[in-house]
Write a structure and sequence with these properties.
Elements: E1 8-12, H1 15-18, H2 41-45, H3 68-81, E2 86-90, H4 93-96, H5 107-122, E3 126-132, H6 138-144, H7 152-166, E4 173-177, H8 187-191, H9 197-201, H10 203-231, E5 236-243, E6 246-248, H11 253-275, H12 280-288, H13 297-305, E7 310-315, E8 319-321, E9 331-333, E10 336-338, E11 345-346, E12 352-353, H14 355-369, E13 373-377, H15 395-413, E14 419-425, E15 445-447, E16 459-461, H16 463-473
Parallel strand pairs: 1-2, 1-14, 2-3, 3-4, 4-5, 5-7, 6-8, 7-13, 13-14
Antiparallel strand pairs: 9-10, 11-12, 15-16
Amino acid sequence: MGFNKDFLWGGATAANQFEGAYNEDGRGLANVDIIPIGELRRPMMRGQINKTDFIEGYHYPAKEGIDFYHRYKEDIALIAEMGFKAFRLSIAWSRIFPKGDEEAPNEKGLQFYEDVFKECQKYGMEPIVTITHFDIPIHLVEAYGGWRNRKILGFYENHARALFTRYKGLVKYWITFNEINMLFDNPFMSAGIILTEEELEDDHKRRETLYQAAHHQLVASAIAVKTAREVDKEIKVGAMIAATTTYPDTPNPDDVWAAHLLERTGFFLVDVQVRGEYPGYAKKEFERNNFNLHITEEDLKLLKENTVDYLSFSYYLTLVKSADESRTDAKQGNVLTSHPNKYLEKTDWGWNIDPKGFRITLNRLYDRYNIPLFVVENGLGAYDTLDENGMVQDDYRIDFLAKHIEQMKLAVEVDGVDLLGYTTWGCIDLVSAGSGEMAKRYGFIYVDRDNDGNGTLERKKKKSFNWYKKVIESNGEDVSNT
């Protein structure tokens, strides 16, 4: 017995990486719009540059993305041709509330997503919708300091209620925050936080600020769950984490402990969203460092009574951790750094390729939380080139995904993991969140666009297009490359 007959196969995207039309139909400016490609990208994502507008001479790929805003019917028809059962996308907050603090939403923004969801419905696709995918109106950054400010809770609640109400009957599965644990590494991208000079110089102060912002997002997530249940009891609201497994470099207990600590930093926010309270290790961290956090009894009550219905996550790689802090061989993979793993191959961007680690991660999450899981991001970022026939022969992507799907099937069939669905990341080529590149391609559909914003935006099916269609048709039974 493999996957359930109603298993949700599909693909995933994010508004700021593929929608474009950043200043059309009343949409306001967002934090992700002003993060350029190039040397400023990482410092801006990390909140190290105090800038809230475009800088002359830089290219901003989110402005146009791949123009899904004007091409959504064409794109949805293409992914429907693959047989998608689900399509994960996100809401651009500033398209609904251009400044973020208005009382009434922007009707043109609401109508756009209604049209998109109805188009999905036409093809029998379930929208999986992220309320906030690295996205906050720039006005909330400038006027309130982003998620460091408790006032954002009310604006988020207003936003969530508008979405749940307008799209009742159109959207069943919601996600409150994309990769909520990325806030600590990329505070501007994840939470609209520009660090002050004091926070940049004082690590204690910086961590205190980020823990407070994280608490605000946790409370906002609980408020969204509460609001959803008030509006429509059929709605399912999930958390979302950037998940991985961290291996100790050796069996040395010091390495095992170092790996455990690193892995746990990714769990603690989801511990709260799933279990309804801060874990003991987090409370001790706050106490030991004397962090001055504003956490009310009402907050704790909200967290306890409004836990999520399912846990969604991204999985791309595994990490290796050594306790030896003098080592200099750790390299960045995704956001976190990893020591070498001689047993694994790497992607074009140096990320460890670990299909069995996928099964391990699925088991660890399910053992820890025992609620339904949903894989909402998995995929291979690679350099794709068109051959003389205008086709991308992406056998490397097929091989990557096939091996991961095989391990996912074992997690379900052999290990008993309760899994709702699987949506590959960037099912249609889009802008990379980490690097801002178009050259880092994940899709089954090629988009004619380069890193400088040149190209016709023409869509072309890759070899993997028909392969994934076959995988879905067989409900994951046939992953062969034939």
